[in-house]
User: Which sequence fits this backbone?
C-alpha cells in the first residue's frame, strides 16, 4: 500500500474516533432502556407510585408508604399483592402484567423491595401493633360509639368534618376499600397531622376490635352502586393486601 492510501485510512479512523466522543453524543451507558428493562427503584416508583403516594413515599392523595407504622404492619406479601393486583373498584390500579398492568414480575419485586427498604425496625420502639387485616368482622353499631370516642373531636360527631375533613363523604368512600380505611385508622396520616391508633385519645389506645368496628361503621356510610353491592367492602385475608 502506498503512503497516500495509508494516510487516508488513518484519517478516516481518526474522524470516527473523534465522532464517538464528540460533544452532544450520548454516552453508551445513557441509552434509553425499553420500559420492561427499567429496574431502578427510584425510576419505577416515580413513574408508577409517586403521583398518589408522594415523593419518596411521603404521602399525597393516598397514604404515605414510608410511614414507619405502615411498614411495621404491612409485610412484603401485603405490599406485593397490592402492587400486583391493585384494589378492584378503587383508585388503586393493578400494575402487574398478569393483571393487565405494565410492569414485569421483576419490576414489581423491585418496587416492593424499594418500599420495604424504607422500614425502620427500631421505630416506634417495642410497640404492639394491631393486625394489618381484620381478624374478626366489625360491628357498625359498636363502631358508631368508637367513632364518637376516638374520632369525632376532629371529624365531627356525624363524621362530616370539623377540625379535620369529612370521612363519610360518598365520593371518598367509593374510592377506598375497607382495608384502606383500617390502614389509615392504624397508621394515621402523619403528613396531614392525623395521629395513628395510639394518639386519638391520650392514654387510650384503640384495640383491634375497636378498629374493626369503626371501619364497619365507616363502610356502612358508603353508597352502594346497584351493579357492585360489595365490590369495595371486602376484607382482605391476613397477610393479603390492599393498602
Assistant:
Amino acid at each position: 500500500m502506498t503512503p497516500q492510501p495509508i494516510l487516508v485510512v488513518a484519517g478516516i479512523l481518526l474522524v470516527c474516533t473523534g465522532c464517538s466522543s464528540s460533544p452532544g453524543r450520548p454516552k453508551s451507558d445513557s441509552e434509553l432502556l425499553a420500559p420492561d428493562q427499567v429496574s431502578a427503584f427510584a425510576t419505577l416508583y416515580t413513574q408508577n407510585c409517586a403521583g398518589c403516594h408522594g415523593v419518596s413515599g411521603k404521602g399525597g392523595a393516598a397514604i404515605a408508604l414510608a410511614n414507619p407504622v405502615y411498614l411495621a404492619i404491612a409485610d412484603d406479601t401485603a405490599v406485593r399483592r397490592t402492587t400486583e393486583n391493585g384494589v378492584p373498584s378503587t383508585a388503586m390500579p393493578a400494575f402487574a402484567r398478569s393483571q393487565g398492568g405494565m410492569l414485569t414480575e421483576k419490576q414489581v419485586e423491585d418496587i416492593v423491595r424499594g418500599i420495604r427498604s424504607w422500614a425502620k425496625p427500631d421505630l416506634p420502639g417495642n410497640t404492639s401493633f394491631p393486625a394489618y387485616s381484620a381478624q374478626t368482622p366489625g360491628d357498625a353499631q359498636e363502631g358508631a360509639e368508637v367513632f364518637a370516642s376516638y374520632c369525632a373531636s376532629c371529624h365531627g360527631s356525624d363524621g362530616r368534618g370539623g377540625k379535620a375533613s369529612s370521612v363519610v363523604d360518598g365520593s371518598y368512600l367509593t374510592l377506598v376499600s375497607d382495608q384502606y380505611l383500617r390502614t389509615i385508622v392504624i397508621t394515621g396520616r402523619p403528613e396531614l397531622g392525623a395521629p395513628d391508633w395510639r394518639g386519638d385519645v391520650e392514654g387510650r389506645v384503640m384495640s383491634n376490635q375497636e378498629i374493626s368496628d369503626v371501619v364497619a361503621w365507616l363502610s356502612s356510610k358508603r353508597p352502594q352502586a346497584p351493579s357492585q353491592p360489595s365490590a369495595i367492602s371486602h376484607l382482605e385475608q391476613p397477610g393479603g393486601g390492599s393498602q
